[in-house]
């Protein structure tokens, strides 16, 4: 079967795949690969991400304090701090859930996966509740600095991945 008239390509069936398309590595081969490319096997420290979220929140709040009008200075700064809190507090809850799962000696890989899923559920639920709670209890918040700070704290995950 020809799929392309310009450059004929033979269709590959599932059963026609080469046996070398993937290869399970031995422990010695994996150790050699880890030594050759150590950067590919490093993990990201979650607490470093949370710390960078908190620092970024303080930086944006200080920008809001120094570059806003004096009449609205406190509201803009408070709104930026709330946005950062909504960004990094659920991350802290997620990390605490994962740390609790790691300390459980009886946990299996399935148990740790359940901790990741339940931690992510807690994170989403906490984010929604914090947004609703602050919107109802603090109607004078300025949404632009709040959302800018919240979105900036979310980008800390991406920055940590690139800096790795």
The biggest sheet amounts to: none
Mean pLDDT: 86
Structural class: mainly alpha
What series of H and E elements makes up the topology? Answer: HHHHHH
Beta fraction: under 5%
Distance between the termini: 45 Å
Unreliable stretches: none
Query: Whole-number radius of gyration?
Result: 24 Å
Shape type: elongated
| Number of strand segments | 0
The amount of helix comes to 55-70%
Annotation field: number of helices = 6
Give an account of the 3D structure.
This protein is an all-alpha fold and 164 residues long. Helices cover 68% and strands 0% of the residues. It contains 6 helices and no strands. It has helices spanning 27-36, 46-67, 73-103, 109-137, 143-154, 156-163. It is elongated, with a radius of gyration of 24 Å. It starts with 26 loop residues before the first helix and ends with a helix. 15% of the residues are buried. The model has no long low-confidence stretch (mean pLDDT 86).
